[in-house]
From TrEMBL:
Keyword Hydrolase: yes
Protein source organism: Salvia splendens
Alphabetized UniProt keyword annotations: Glycosidase, Hydrolase
InterPro entries documented for this protein: GH, Glyco_hydro_17, Glyco_hydro_17_plant
Residue ranges, compositional bias (Polar residues): 235-245
Family: Belongs to the glycosyl hydrolase 17 family.
GO molecular function, one term: hydrolase activity, hydrolyzing O-glycosyl compounds
Protein name in UniProt: Glucan endo-1,3-beta-D-glucosidase
Organism ancestry: Eukaryota, Viridiplantae, Streptophyta, Embryophyta, Tracheophyta
Keyword Transmembrane helix: no
GO biological process assignments: carbohydrate metabolic process
Stretch list, region Disordered: 209-245
Length: 309
């Protein structure tokens, strides 16, 4: 389960449940945590130490912060210092082995995503992410990304088949010796390639060392694996937009559940994935489509049956 702001009512409800929790720290609070270690200590005490019976797995410092995004660029210089302060507080609490500190990006940070093996971050994003990735690698945390085949399809309908975007069988493509039967896996591998490329360049610059895994798991021979990718958001709208309807939403999420255990062509291991969202956000500003990603209506009524087994 992922929550975008630590809510005490949610934390209380999760006590003793065993449900793994991914908590985000809002962009607006990052500067405070970056500039004041005591604030980071207080945050960890209030949301981690005081909830020993909540299975907190990840703390994501910020959401979709990017120097290429005018709405979030002002937060970029605070993300890594905030991550470090929160991590130090987690270490002092004796929870570094259980709770990993990371951050989340969107696919818009990639300057190239096709073919997947050539995935790379934008030139103006790479300098921001390079030290963050070094920190993530050093602490054993994953790197997090929001992956939406729906939006890739909408903006590239002349190039992408709807069945490929809905993860349906029989719409796959061959790319550089790999077979991708769905767009989700292609996008995840593009993120992996971008991350691995940046990690590799960092090691060449610093002369650092990194343990390689097997060639099968590392993907391209001789390339460092880098951190695991966790997909923190993916889903499909059920209304109020191009190709947004109940059938497509259910089809996408059903197929997603079926494929994530198999991994991708370059990384054939389960993909830890969070479906967005649990509820429709009927008061969310912006496009009407954005309010229709939920599995449930705001009143708690399910939109359609979804089997997670």
């Amino acid at each position: 389960m992922r929550t975008y702001d630590p809510d005490n009512a949610i934390l209380d409800a999760l006590r003793g449940s065993g449900i793994e929790l991914n908590v985000a720290i809002t962009n607006q609070y990052i500067e405070c945590l970056a500039n004041d270690a005591n604030s980071a200590n207080d945050w960890v005490r209030n949301h981690v130490i005081n909830y020993p019976d909540v299975n907190l797995k990840y703390i994501s410092v910020g959401n979709k912060v990017s120097p290429a995004d005018s709405a979030t660029s002002r937060f970029t210089r605070f993300v890594l210092p905030a991550m470090r302060n929160v991590y130090k507080a987690i270490c002092r609490a004796g929870r570094a082995g259980q709770v990993k500190v990371t951050t989340t990006v969107s696919m818009s940070t990639l300057g190239n995503s096709f073919p997947p093996s050539d995935g790379a971050f934008h030139d103006d994003v790479a300098p921001y992410l390079r030290p963050i990735l070094s920190f993530i690698v050093s602490t054993g945390a994953p790197f997090m990304a929001n992956v939406y085949p729906y939006f890739s399809y909408i903006y590239n309908k002349d190039q992408i088949d709807i069945g490929y975007a809905l993860l349906e069988q029989g719409h796959g493509i061959h790319v550089n010796g790999e077979y991708y039967d769905n767009l989700f896996c292609a996008m995840v591998d593009a993120v992996y390639a971008a991350v691995e490329r940046l990690v590799e360049r960092s090691l060449k610059t610093t002369g650092g060392m990194y343990n390689h895994t097997s060639e099968k798991k590392a993907g391209r021979k001789g390339r460092p694996r880098g951190p695991k990718i966790v997909v923190t958001e993916t889903g499909h709208p059920s209304g109020s937009g191009d190709s947004a309807n109940m059938y497509n939403a259910k089809t996408y999420n059903d197929n997603l559940i079926d494929i994530v255990d198999d991994g991708t062509p370059r990384h054939p291991e389960p993909i830890e994935t969070y479906i967005f969202a649990l509820f429709n956000e009927n008061e969310k500003p912006g496009a009407e489509t954005e309010r229709n990603f939920g599995l449930f209506y705001p009143n708690g009524q399910p939109k359609y049956d979804l089997n997670f087994n």
